[in-house]
Amino acid sequence: MVKSENIKKLLEDGLESLKKNKNEKAIEYFERVIAVEAENTMAWNNKGVALRKLGKIEDAINCYNKALSIDPDLSRALLNKARALKMQKKFDLALFTYEDILELHPEHREAIEESERVRNLLSRQVQLIQVEESVTQKESEERKLFNERKEELIEFLEESRKSISDSVEKIEEIFTSGIKEEALEHRDRILNALISFNKQLLNRIRNINDEFVTLDFEEEIRELIDTWDAFKDAKIEELKNLN
Q: 68 with 60: CB under 8 angstroms?
């Protein structure tokens, strides 16, 4: 019988695997939890996240639904389900799911912002139909633009990651050389700059979103955002460990 402390360790290992995009390994950890605690909503929800990252959207939605059957008010599972429905272009269902979140948490920032984008997508698609322009044709055109914008963002993030990694490495070198006060001053500046950069990045992604009528750019690059978040969090943790 797996003890409760081992359940906690399995969940932690699963989440760590998710951060490193070791999604199949993450699924193994979460399934081991489910085998012992069939109603563990955290395991079901995060198994869904791993499946979504592997492109298994319908399987992911089934996991979110399982978590929600255990706890209908689980906002994280509702948010993940809404995002998965958007990936399937089921915008009406996604909007209903966002509304479920906002009934529970009226100030939920992500649900507010993402539901507004879904409404805009639906409105634009109605306009396309009204002018008798094929949504399928428009999506085909936008797919080319999407690929361009995604490549630009990948290049930008690669350059940013290199610059940030170099800065963190230099600060660590200064710290280990014994000049701790100077290193900590640099660290605080980099931490503030990293937080500011992340806000600018999110704004940039949202601005790109406005270029599209049929695609949700932010949802389409969710994997890219997850990878950036894992990198950002790791670097922040690295800097904070300098004491």
A: no
* Residue 36 and residue 2 in contact, taking contact as beta carbons nearer than 8 Å: yes
Q: How far is CA 2 from the centre of its chain?
A: 31
Burial of 110 (0-12, 13-18, 19+ CB in 10 A): middle
- Block means of pLDDT (10 residues each) for the chain, 243 residues, are 74 91 94 94 96 93 97 95 91 93 94 90 72 68 90 92 90 88 88 89 88 84 88 88 80
Measured torsion, CA atoms of residues 59, 104, 122, 209, in degrees rounded to the nearest 10: -80
Record the tokens describing residue 192, joined without a space: 């503030």
The whole-angstrom separation of Cα 236 and Cα 190 is 9
User: Of 4, 1, 21, 15, whose CA–CA distance to 43 is shortest?
Assistant: 15
* Residue with the two structure tokens 């912002």: 113
Fold type of domain 4-130: 1.25.40
pTM of the model: 0.66
